[in-house]
Amino acid sequence: HSVVRNALFCLETAANQRENHVYTKALLAYAFALAGNSEKRKALLDSLEKEAVRKDGSVHWQRPGKEPEADLPYYRHRAPSAEVEMTAYVLLAHLTSQPAPAQEELAFASLIAKWISSQQNPSGGFSSTQ
């Protein structure tokens, strides 16, 4: 359909910009995964992997220039909703591929899922509004 084709062209133009915010890259990676554009999806995921925060056996993404959280005993930091959302979009982009994700991609996705699950509040929800 021409509307979808035009929308994808707009997204491709945005993806080709030199500097994209990490949140934008996460959304674009998921959009291209849904659209079946594996080349763009992979390029964005490769770029995102370079910006990943690896800590305590998990992987997540945070906004550039953010202050590192305090590492205090008996204190469990919960990330802001934007970071939970963008990390979840990266996870969805990893899991939305045709054919099914490779074993190494699933292993990386499990590290992302580990971080996301650590962000649950005592009621089982998240700070994210999405």
UniProtKB/TrEMBL annotation:
Where's the Alpha-macroglobulin-like TED domain?
Answer: 2-130
Under the heading Pfam families, the entry gives: TED_complement (PF07678)
Gene3D superfamilies in the cross-refs = 1.50.10.20
Signal sequence range: none
InterPro entries to which the protein is assigned, alphabetical: A2M/Complement_sys, Alpha-macroglobulin_TED, Terpenoid_cyclase/PrenylTrfase
Highest taxon of source: Eukaryota
What do the Gene Ontology cellular component annotations say? extracellular space
Stated name of the protein:
PZP protein
Species:
Certhia brachydactyla (short-toed tree-creeper)
